[in-house]
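Hello,

I think I submitted the 2-acetamido-2-deoxy-beta-D-glucopyranose job twice by accident. Can you confirm which output corresponds to this input? Input:
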Amino acid sequence: MHFPLWITALSLLGAATASSFKRQADGPEYQLKTGPLDTDWTKQVGTNPWPEYPRPQLARSEWKNLNGVWQYQNASGGAAELATPPFNKTLSEAVLVPFCLESALSGIMGSNLIHSWYRTLFDVPSSWFDSEKRVLLNFGAVDYQTSVFVNGKLAGNNTGGYFHFALDVTDLVNTNGTNELIVYTYDPTNTDGTSIPLGKQRLNPDHINYTPCSGIWQTVWLESAGRQYITQLDIDAKADGSLNITVHTSGDQGNSSVGSFDITVHSQGAEGVALQETGQANAPTLFKIDSPQVWSPDSPNLYNVTVKLGSDTVTSYTGFRTLSKGVIDSLPRPLLNGEFVFQFGPLDQGYWPDGLHSPPTYEAMVSDLKAVKEVGFNMVRKHIKIEPGLFYRACDELGIMVVQDMPAMPTYPYPYRPACTDGAVHVTPEQQQEFERELARMVEQLKSHPSITTWVIYNEGWGQSRYDRTTDVRLTSLVRSLDPTRLINTVSGWHDHGAGDFHDNHHYSFPQCGTPFWGGDSGPFDASRIGFQGEFGGVGNNVSIEHLWNVPHAISQINQTYELAETLEGWNFRVRATFADLRSQVEAWSCSGAVYTQTTDVEGEVNGLLTYDRRVNRMDVERWKGDIEGMYEAARNRGTVPDGGEEGGEGQVRRYVVGVDEPFKAEMMMMG
Ligand SMILES: *[C@@H]1O[C@H](CO)[C@@H](O)[C@H](O)[C@H]1NC(C)=O
Ligand SMILES: *[C@@H]1O[C@H](CO)[C@@H](O)[C@H](O)[C@H]1NC(C)=O
Ligand SMILES: *[C@@H]1O[C@H](CO)[C@@H](O)[C@H](O)[C@H]1NC(C)=O
Ligand SMILES: *[C@@H]1O[C@H](CO)[C@@H](O)[C@H](O)[C@H]1NC(C)=O
Ligand SMILES: *[C@@H]1O[C@H](CO)[C@@H](O)[C@H](O)[C@H]1NC(C)=O
Ligand SMILES: *[C@@H]1O[C@H](CO)[C@@H](O)[C@H](O)[C@H]1NC(C)=O
Ligand SMILES: *[C@@H]1O[C@H](CO)[C@@H](O)[C@H](O)[C@H]1NC(C)=O
Ligand SMILES: *[C@@H]1O[C@H](CO)[C@@H](O)[C@H](O)[C@H]1NC(C)=O
Ligand SMILES: *[C@@H]1O[C@H](CO)[C@@H](O)[C@H](O)[C@H]1NC(C)=O
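Support: Only one job matched these inputs. Its output is below.
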């Protein structure tokens, strides 16, 4: 009997994970590529990347990381090719999973990678084979469409580049030998005729649009779960100690009985059990704990949650806090735990020169958040990208509120700005339907993170219809029905149609936050909604070539920056001037939060608090701390508790009438 080489070679390696080597058995050898720019973490990645358990809100103890060196080959995507996956064939190249195929860390660093094959081999611990257990194969995220084959059989498919998915492969894997995993991916990015949620990815990057990310870009792992297992925990915990939890389950393999679960909750910071109860799965269950230590950016208290359902046990966590809106001194305000908290932070894109969508390491990812927190920002706007679960856990732990954008489609639908159309593609009804399905999936995937305060449906006009108000209203209702616990910013920038909780314009460099002077693309300021500056700033500062994305096309577009300061002193001066302007708007007008562009440089953009390689921090940290604290103080001085008390929120919303309104007159006088 002839066994292919990989089987014999692998059995000699015993229990060692194939992925801890630079190649898989007789496969090609992995080589880190030299990209246009690296980071201090690039060379630390090695061949066992992202060893952390990747899904902190639904964690199991028995798991096995499949990240590492896999095989890769480009594909044509033809029907014939799809019908014959490369079972038992060594593919031509080595790829480091989980890094985007276009990234240097992947070892591929290709372009126009529309169709791809991945292949790896794995063992399943024999203790996982038990009639009371199931084997799950999990993917953190794969861009864009995926088909997964285990030992020659289709295990499942997925569509959507930002979502985790789990496949029950119990009946496909064997315990007595090596298993073969083949993954097929299709990622059109913005190929003509397509329009998918993709954020800033473009086949031909151009200033504010960047290199795409194709294929597997988050951790792949196996785990052992109970026979009837927990598929998702929806947890909403409020400042009054109420805990609303739904334990979703897989069903009991043909047995429709769902059973009850046991839940234990205890504070991460205090001794003792806060709650020990039982409940029924697959329906919302309400519990209550006494005097919780509430979650806020200043004291991000978290509670560990353990849920046991039959033979399945998962751990998770939550934070007790309440998000709402209220009226304070006639102005609509976003409230956290019943009080107005000014939300201030950078536009956070989450791009990396070495990994693109995939941060090189966990430490690298969190270092951005620490730099943001260090100067006192209390929020990030996660910009048209969805991050790994560990990113949101870091925000929950550090105390950083998250304004979460839906990844945009690339198009400007007809009849808007024909000159700006990207490939002259318009959104078809099918594409719109898929956008809405993925929007719902984003909310379902992220809604248990205490730090997320706001959902953003559209960024500027991307994928949004300029004239069709009904779609904005309908999508706002959809998101509201999926998650009534948060605020909704229907449109951040440009075409405001009156839907959602915010009126949000984008204005560079200087802000126009909640002011009645300027509406621009967003129309006149609507004082009945919360005034918010979804983007301002963008002040640039060019750097020497060793900190730049060294691609001629990117460098030639640096001159498109709104303004470029010659020196770091000049840059700090200009940014602080925009902060001073913002502060005057917080003092005089209806400004409840603002987003400074942006956390880091990205490709041809040089307007970050940090350079793209994260080696230069442009901020004059001590002065920024003072400015940012001053912004909160100015906001507190406008009042923190709603008219009619903390529970109230009833109050008369003032409607500015330009030229007549008192604050407007006051400002005119101030201006001389
Ligand atoms: C793979 O890429 C190479 C180089 O771009 C191309 O020549 C080849 O046709 C591609 N193969 C498939 C199957 O698409
Ligand atoms: C791959 O090879 C092994 C060993 O020869 C065999 O058992 C298995 O069926 C093959 N897989 C497929 C999908 O043909
Ligand atoms: C899964 O996707 C493949 C193509 O990638 C397709 O041939 C197959 O029909 C899909 N199966 C299901 C169940 O959707
Ligand atoms: C492994 O076990 C399966 C049943 O789970 C059996 O069909 C197969 O022949 C066994 N393979 C080897 C190499 O022993
Ligand atoms: C609990 O959460 C569910 C959604 O998961 C929601 O439908 C229900 O209204 C919530 N219950 C309370 C009392 O908030
Ligand atoms: C179905 O589940 C219930 C509750 O867990 C259990 O008592 C019963 O034996 C199960 N039935 C079958 C056929 O497995
Ligand atoms: C809470 O859970 C985390 C993750 O499982 C663990 O590291 C930590 O020790 C737990 N804290 C307490 C107080 O149990
Ligand atoms: C930015 O700096 C790079 C070199 O570091 C230079 O090539 C480029 O011309 C500069 N661009 C502008 C607009 O200053
Ligand atoms: C920016 O520089 C490029 C190449 O150097 C040039 O073609 C372009 O006209 C410049 N654009 C602006 C706005 O100055």
